[in-house]
Amino acid sequence: MMFTREELLLIAKKNPETLIDIIMVLQEQVQSLTKRVAELEQQIKKNSRNSSKPPSSDGPAKPKTKSLRKKSQKKTGGQKGHKGHTLKKVNDPENTIVLPVSSCSCCNDLSSEPVTGYDCRQVFELPKPKLEVTEYQGEIKLCPKCGKLVKASFPEFVNAPTQYGPRFRSLLVYLQNQQLIPPNRISQIMSDLYAAPVCEATIFDASNRGYENIAPFEDAVIEKLSNSSVLHVDESGARTAGKRQWLHTASTESLTFYGIHEKRGTEAMDSFNILPAFHGRLIHDFWKPYLTYNCYHGLCNAHHLRELTFLFEEQGQKWAKEMFDLLQSMNDLVSKQINQLTPEQKEPYLKQYQDILAGGWKENPLPPKKNKKKRGRSKKTKSQNLLIRFSDHESSVLAFFHDINVPFTNNLAEQDIRMLKIRLKISGCFRTIQGAKQFARIRSYLSTLRKQGENILESIVQAIAGNPFIPA
């Protein structure tokens, strides 16, 4: 709606009521646009430090990293009692080179003098890489009784005239799924080191064989995660075959599960058969489908601290800064405890928690209820939504405070799922759904091995041979 100055003057003279209507409409438009601009400005101000946005979304204007951890009084470097690691001599080196002494600095000849001792130094070096070829020769005999040719049986894994062995195949699986190296570069590595430029089909076949053989491992992990006392869960998008799929993770300090599904919510979680049978403490980031499961809940306070940071830095919310400091104080108190906190220890913190919420509601009063004839709920501000979460889910927000065995954050699941993002950045999207599922199961195996201190390469060899590691 646009008018020239002359048109407005004419309307004011002939029909003032029409001019007032025009002004009222324009006022509504200005208010609507002003509100929208404010919302967009707030979105621009959000980054990985004050919201749940990933660091990859920060772009060139990346904010300066600022850790939420408080500085300790300890000096940098190894602490007292820390066991260092150094290269130690071995008792039986593979090669020994004796360096003779033939003369002294005074020009005296020492070639015929007896040796009184040795000053020993050891050099640890890689042997020249090469493939060892083992030929299996099956005997063939002619039975004198029936005249039949009888051939010796080959070992089960020897099933072709020429083939790569299980250890070589395991190295391919390791490089692709642990070190996240793309297949074409794996082929280059094998060519450079072993003069064996394997094709991509061989690499995929090795991963597929590992994927099929570790199915019993996955079944065991699912059962143990379902019965765990504390379980971390998270999910993230994974571009697969031109469409968005979702990678779900469920993990503990010693176990990791990854699963790929086209859905993000309960349909996917039910299909993995972990959460429907879980009744312990579920740690997550307040994704609503998690709340539908019949278990105890614990919310990630790292997310809360970032959201509170945005509220007091960008919106000047006093209560947000107070809650930020209180949650950190509670975490500091819990981190020093060996036994559970007593009611007397918890009481002043819980009272302060309620006082901060009351102050927050004074800063952010809810709007009056809508007319019953109008459908839908009134839109709430970010502060109001966070206050509702802290009020309605207090036991989940403060789960770490009521039980010192519950972690303060969901960092364990986020660290586990970070590997997928690294894989996608290095190699791009998954070409097929089956390829994504292979990576998920094999990565579950490798992550669990790492957490339990097992030798990863040897465990892959066992999996390729059909005897995968099963967590105790």
Give the gist of this structure.
This protein has 472 residues and is of the alpha/beta class.
Give your account of this protein's structure.
The structure is a single chain. This protein is an alpha/beta fold and 472 residues long. Among the domains are: 143 residues, Nucleotidyltransferase, domain 5 (2-Layer Sandwich); 86 residues, no CATH class. Helix content is 45%, strand content 8%. The protein has 16 helices and seven strands. The protein has a five-stranded mixed sheet with strand order 5-4-3-6-7, sandwiched between helices. A two-stranded antiparallel ribbon has the order 1-2. A hairpin with a 2-residue loop joins strand 3 and strand 4.
CATH class annotation of the domain at 210-298 and 411-464: Alpha Beta
- Broad shape: elongated
* Computed Rg: 33 Å
Examine the secondary-structure arrangement and name the CATH architecture of the domain at 210-298 and 411-464: 2-Layer Sandwich
Structural class: alpha/beta
Low-confidence stretches: none
Determine the number of helices (DSSP H or I, runs of at least 4 residues): 16
Helix percentage range = 40-55%
| Widest beta sheet: strand line-up | 5-4-3-6-7
Q: Can you count the beta strands? A: 7
State mean pLDDT (0 to 100 scale).
Answer: 88
What is the terminal separation in angstroms?
A: 73 Å
